[in-house]
Amino acid sequence: MKETIKNSCINEFDPNALEEVQAINKILKTIQSIKSSEKVNLKDALHRTISKTVRATINVPSFRNSAMDGYALNINDLKSNKYQLSEIGVSLAGRPFESSLKAGQTVRVMTGALIPKNADAVIMKEMVSKQGLNVCFPKNLKKNQNIRFIGEDIKKGEAVFKRGDELNFSGLSILSSLGINKIDVICKPKISYFSSGDELVNTGRKLLQGQIYDSNRYLLHGLLKDLPVTFSDLGIVKDKKANLIKKLQQAALTSNIIITTGGVSVGDADYIKDALEEVGSVGFWKIAIKPGRPLAFGKINDSYFFGLPGNPVSAAVTFQLFVVPAIFKLLSQKQRRGVIIKAITKNKLKKKLGRTEYKRAVISIINDKIYVETTGLQGSNIMMSMLKANCYIRLSANVSEIKEGDTVEVMPFDTKL
Ligand code: AMP
Ligand code: MG
To answer: What is the mean pLDDT of residues 311-328?
Structure first.
């Protein structure tokens, strides 16, 4: 890319800006995963990360049981008894019928109930006819039909989870089915964040001329709340290097990750990079993406630092692209590249060469075809186009114009059903 795109006023090529993938790789290489773990109650473990291998100490199911309400029988027994067997008892879930079947016998079984030892099939209740305790079976039965086998879901000794696996609702179900009620998980990353800017005012106050409400701390609250982390909001810091340094040093005492927004570009009041240089080290501070070119990444003692841009859309995009993978790395989780789908653009799209661009858009499906349409103004201050969006259109650095009807790459945000 750098060979083909030359720096000029009409494109956005910046030789000092890292490409997105290089930046992510640098972040992942720098970050050391958290070593400490803790034991928590299973119900508190939702979305937490497993810290060591969990092996099943029992089989699930641990006994042969019925998949249906019906009758358990021995198939070999049918022909000699003219497909008629006599019901000698009932096996309920939790109230098993424990004797064996003898020739000519069947046992009524409910879903989840123990199956008598020498039975080798269960036939659905709806498929038999009955006269008193005499049960008449159809002819075409298959061995093992409707029987759930020992260990068919989970085998004793099997590793069901390994370090770095995140627990979701299925995980909670599986662990509890193994009788586990406490689980070792990796300690939650501690995140601290603050906003920087002389113009920023807390909500609930009156705005003076030139001031704006600080919305980035709410944005970060919303983004962090969905992640398995603890976080603290350190408020607003003025555009003064000394104040920034003090706050960064204070945050570094207790945080795995420090996030700031604003003050990271090259304006007269942008001191974040200078402050970071003074208290720690700068890994990089410019990335070839839009929105979000200025993004400082570095270290302050044992804390990792992300100086996100001040514009809310840029802060959101850079959080999703760079901070989220950092959090997963801290948690030893595997990196997941969000689903990327191809969609037909309903708009003509324009951009300058030199930066990968993320446009806010919505997906729609018409006659089985996936379409995508931008949600309005694309400035990095325009949060309304983010609010209406359910995906990003991702355009590579070397693309400048896309026609209506062309196919583009789309990254959906929300994967909930
Ligand atoms: P900066 O990165 O400090 O140059 O800020 C870029 C733009 O983002 C400016 O228009 C700022 O006023 C705005 N901005 C910075 N911080 C915030 C914030 N916490 N909430 C809302 N807008 C902000
Ligand atoms: Mg500022």
So the answer is: 96
